[in-house]
Amino acid sequence: MDRDWMRQQLEAFDNLAMRYEASERHGGYIGDRTLYEQLHRLEPTIKQILRLLDPKIAEKIDIDQMAGPIMARNEVHRGLGILASMDEWAARLTPDAPTLAADQLHPWVWEPASPLWAAEARQDAVLAAARTVNRRLQQKLGRHDIGETDLCLQTFDLKEPVAGKPRLRFPDDRNTPTWRARQEGAKYLAAGVFLAIRNVAAHEDEVSWTEQEALEHLATLSVLARWIGECTVESAG
Fold first, then answer.
1. Which of these, 137, 145, 224, lies nearest to 188 by C-alpha position?
2. Is pLDDT at 29 greater than 60 in this prediction?
3. Buried-exposed string 201-222: b where 16+ CB fall within 10 A, e elsewhere
4. What's the whole-model pTM score?
5. Rounded distance between C-alpha atoms, residue 50 and residue 55, angstroms
6. Which of 178, 180, 176, 141 is nearest to 162 (CA)?
7. Taking the CA of residue 51 as centre, how many other CA atoms within 13 Å lie in the half-sphere pointing to its CB?
């Protein structure tokens, strides 16, 4: 929310309402018609702002009722009070939670995504990151002959490498269940990333991802990128 703009609109309304009240007193309860019309024009915006702050406050705004501008000023003052306190509420009342810094994602992910993200092209940012991770995987394995999903399934497979089909292997003891589970998990997560994230970004005209969802997709790609970088290439022979 643009709190500064909201505050400006509320203060402008309050100023108009105060001037209208003064004109009523001087005019024998007949206020300045120009000011009244200006209040009417601002009223829908004020209601929208107050509805975001507290729906109950917004419902009390009605310029046309008796003493409407005066009553509206009271609710606008409440709205201004809420706006003035929101930053402190956020700092003091929100439970502590970790945050995800986008610029700390793997460079294969954030570097291609960053300029598109800055332009609010979230879908294109995710697609650019996925394509870069795929190209890096192809380069590391020296393979450009199959699609990314099949490449991921073959790359992390537990089978021994064969000619033309090198594998990626995590470090540590290969005889442990944990190592085998990690290889299998990477195999299916990597394939899933390209099936469920990259393909959607590439083939849908416009996805309805929120900023949080798109950031989570980038984070998933970052995990895969780090795994690819961590693994060593194992070739036949």
1. 224
2. no
3. beeeeebebeeeebbebbebbb
4. 0.62
5. 6
6. 141
7. 8
